[in-house]
Amino acid sequence: MKIHEVPQDSQRLKRGDTTYINYAVDEHGNFVQVWSKGWEVQDTAMDNLEKMFHDLEQEALEKIKSDEASPLEYFMHHFQLDLPLFAAQMGVSRRRIKKHFRPDVFNKLDDKTLREYANFFQIDVDTIKNFKG
Amino acid sequence: MKNILVKPKLSEFKHRPSGHCETGGTASMISNHGMELSEAMVLGITSGITFFYFPLVKIWNNPLISYRMAPRSMIKGLQKRLGIRFDMREFKDQKEAMEDLDRLLEQGQAVGCTAGISALPYFTPEMRIYFNAHTVIILGKENDEYICSDPVFDHITRCPVKDLQRARFVKGANAPNGFRWYPVFIPDPAAIDWKPVIRKAVKSTVGMMLQPMFPFVGIKAIHVVINKIKKMQKNPDKKMVKNFLNHIILFQEEVGTGGGGFRFMYAAFLKEAYDMLKIPELEQASKKMLETGDIMRNFAVALAKVVRGKQDPSDLSEIIGLMREWAKSETEVYIILKKIRWK
Questions:
Q1: pLDDT of res. A34
Q2: Of A42, A44, A85, Cβ closest to residue B130
Q3: pLDDT tens digit string along A24-64?
Q4: Which of A60, A64, B16, B152 sits CB 3.0–4.6 Å from B28 for a disulfide?
Q5: DSSP string covering chain A
Q6: Is A12 a residue whose pLDDT tops 80?
């Protein structure tokens, strides 16, 4: 990669201050560190990932409305997690979380368990408890 | 060997933005403590480059693809190859870990910490991926906030105490368990014999990448992925195919500098090694590695085309072609390196 080939075409403002340092060669063949503002291809990947989770979110919302799923499933996808990752990050078994996806089980959950989830997502207990979609 | 470690004042700690968190963090720490070491050199010396495809571990429903060695291998590699000694420790008790950190900061010691990105508030919410082995250097404490030198930011950042504690004890794969480290012994770079150090590092990388036994590591793994993509052309579930290809881009270019980035960095290491040892093959390999990086970038562009829907996922011949080219080019690099006569 030459210096002028270092991508500077990211359209995403959401990246914040995260910087990308790329290694490129100058005209003498020496390696230099070059700042990059991000790359279109990276944007595509992130957008697609977001879209994937957005679809899952919508699916979960539908399910909540027809009383087939608990708000937990929505929040899981909202924070870009899938079940194995969620269980690993929470440090509990997948089976337990899957059980809590059922609305009848979720409605009976005590505050302590709900607070665990709320702490993990860093939101209020009430938000997760009274979520109606 | 003589210890040349000089403790820098915390206010004079030079923040060095770098391409990748772990190599950058360790390089920055060691450079600030008296031994000038570049990020690329850390990557090379610790044999940090790899290609790893492991379908048994799934992330977002897709197999794990990695272009670097496991987290912490770089800190351990520096100990092994260069004889630098780190004081490393893990904690079970969260309170104890934070008290230990405060004590070290009071003594004027910069401390490297492993933290989960998902809990670090100075990343924007969109960037907070669930990666548990990010490296941050803590430089001090001010009004319930830690001053952090994060290698992927261009400026010094701040992190509230509560959040750092959460980040240091996230659960899941690669859980940090409050891991912290700082150098206690740094040998004199003039007294180090660099030739055997670089020989061992290069040989280890070459051996791993060209190994013929395990299908999930090295060039062999690239061919496994090629075959997988080939089969995907007949897959009627186009959304799934797109998600898999998107997953490759994510891990190649977005998460942790990515593959193309690592290839360029390794090329920089080979060039630096050539400047040091004057072995012509090293420069030749560096140039070839640079080409490999460029091919990988083209590969990512081709993948993005399919993901964006500009090309039909039932015809992936362009991607397969580029991937074969990449595998061939990278193999050549390692064959050049393998044939070097170290004396």
A1: 86
A2: A85
A3: 888 888 888 888 877 888 888 888 888 888 999 999 999 99
A4: B16
A5: -BGGGS-B----STTTTB-EEEEEE-TTS-EEEEEE-B-HHHHHHHHHHHHHHHHHHHHHHHHHHTTSS-HHHHHHHHTT--HHHHHHHHTS-HHHHHHHTSHHHHHT--HHHHHHHHHHHTS-HHHHHS---
A6: no
Cβ B233 vs Cβ B316: under 8 Å: yes
**Is there a contact between A17 and B155 if contact means CB atoms under 8 Å apart?**
yes
Of B246, B253, B307, the CB nearest to A39: B253
Does B176 lie at the interface with A, CB-CB under 8 angstroms?
no
pLDDT tens sequence across B235-255: 888 888 888 898 888 888 777
Mean pLDDT of chain B: 89
Cβ-defined contact of A91 to B301 (cutoff 8 Å): no
Size of the A and B interface in Cβ pairs below 8 Å: 116
DSSP string, B108-172: T--EEEEE-GGG-TTS-GGG----S-EEEEEEEEETTEEEEE-TTBSS-EEEEHHHHHHHHT--S
d(CA B312, CA B243) in angstroms, rounded, equals: 14
What is the 8-class DSSP label of residue B217? B
**What does the pLDDT average to over B73-88?**
90
Closest C-alpha to B20, from B252, B261, B248: B261
Query: How many Å lie between the alpha carbon of A53 and the closest alpha carbon of chain B?
Result: 10
**In chain B, where the domains are located:** 1-15+85-185, 192-338
Dist CA B247 CA B244 (whole Å): 5
- A78 touches B at CB < 8 Å: no
User: Contact, B266 vs B334, CB < 8 A?
Assistant: no
Please state the rounded mean pLDDT for residues B19-38: 89
Residue percentage of chain B with pLDDT more than 90: 44
Inter-chain residue contact B171 with A23, CB threshold 8 Å: no
- The full set of domains in chain A, from first to last, is 3-38 (no CATH), 42-129 (1.10.260)
**CA-to-CA dists, residue B193 to B106, B184, B189, angstroms:** 36, 21, 8
Q: Do A15 and B264 touch (CB under 8 A)?
A: no
- Least Cα separation, residue A81 to chain B (angstroms): 7
Which B positions 181-240 lie with beta carbon below 8 A of chain A?
Answer: none
- Host H or E run for residue B66: strand B62-68
CATH architecture under which domain B1-15+85-185 falls: Alpha-Beta Complex (3.90)
